[in-house]
Design brief:
2 domains, 6-stranded antiparallel beta sheet, D-amino Acid Aminotransferase, Chain A, domain 1, D-amino Acid Aminotransferase, Chain A, domain 2, 8 helices, alpha+beta, binds 4'-deoxy-4'-aminopyridoxal-5'-phosphate
Length: about 280
């Protein structure tokens, strides 16, 4: 069951007119929000980022945060899994094709849900492969825009190479993954690229840095060069759906000793604990 413009319906009954600016221009923004045991995880943070994305494309937020919460909870209620990830999508609406913003047009609002499956234990045990590529996206990567063609093409490079993610390098520095944030570990220090217009401010990225601060894991937020990335002892990937994953092969070469490292294991355990504690108390 999905939500589209005020109505709940089965997904096969949901249609959008061809003149929707999402279809024509990719003119919209989105969010992906995990729900564990039917409770939304870090909802306020996701809604703040949604507002930032809407501001970035100069589109008025069609709902208050309370309205969003209510809509999202209704979508969760009418779907089966206890753990779900909610996809929320807003476009500038339906209008005659013209680049100029249309006047008095209602935005299109679409919400769907899928079962949220944690990465299998085998992947966590072995780690995953990644490749690198030049970050050739626009310079508003902090906006979670639905126009994802560069990310699609970059991520497909990983799929073609039988890898899980493409790690992006811009002007000699690590930015993020095609669909994730990336951390590296060197000499037991967790390194995170600083938030900027060149990367999406990940909600999981923030959780990981909060956990590192709370649990005295040495960490630094600073620019990370391509060389440092290649010579890292550990490379970690984070996202709301994959949580935290160890990258143990980069461009066909082993990362460190080729096994998930101690910092990954520590952060993985802390993340699971944090998530479970949160879900038991409140959303
Ligand atoms: N960067 C990009 C480009 C992403 O698409 C995502 C989410 N899929 C992330 C980072 C991770 O963000 P979050 O932790 O909020 O899922």
């Amino acid at each position: 069951m999905i939500y589209l413009n005020g109505k709940f319906m089965p997904i096969h009954e949901a249609f959008v007119p061809v003149l929707d600016r999402g279809f024509i221009f990719g003119d919209g923004v989105y969010e992906v929000i995990p729900a564990y045991s039917r409770k939304l995880f870090r909802l306020n943070e996701h809604l703040n980022r949604l507002q930032h994305s809407l501001d970035g494309i100069r589109l008025k937020n069609p709902h208050s945060n309370e309205e969003w919460r209510h809509l999202l909870e209704q979508v969760i209620d009418c779907n089966d899994s206890d753990d779900q990830y909610i996809y929320l999508h807003i476009t500038r609406g339906v209008a005659k094709r013209d680049h100029a913003f249309p006047v008095n047009v209602t935005p299109t609002v679409f919400i769907m849900s899928n079962p949220l499956l944690p990465p299998p234990a085998t992947l966590l045990g072995s780690g995953v492969s990644a490749i690198t590529a030049i970050d050739n996206r626009w310079i508003r990567c902090d906006v979670k825009a639905i126009s994802l063609l560069p990310n699609v093409l970059l991520r497909q490079l990983a799929i073609d190479a039988h890898a899980v993610e493409t790690i992006l390098i811009r002007d000699g520095f690590l930015t993020e993954g095609a669909a994730s944030n990336i951390f590296v570990v060197k000499n037991n220090v967790l390194l995170a690229p600083p938030k900027s217009n060149l990367m999406l401010p990940g909600i999981t990225y923030d959780v990981i840095l909060e956990l590192a601060a709370t649990h005295q894991i040495p960490h630094e937020v600073r620019q990370i060069s391509e060389t440092e990335t290649r010579n890292a002892d550990e490379v970690l990937l984070t996202s709301s759906t994959k949580e935290i994953l160890p990258i143990t092969t980069l461009d066909g070469k082993l990362v460190g000793n080729g096994k998930p490292g101690a910092t990954f294991s520590r952060l993985y355990a802390l993340y699971q604990n944090f998530k479970n504690t949160r879900m038991r108390s409140s959303s």
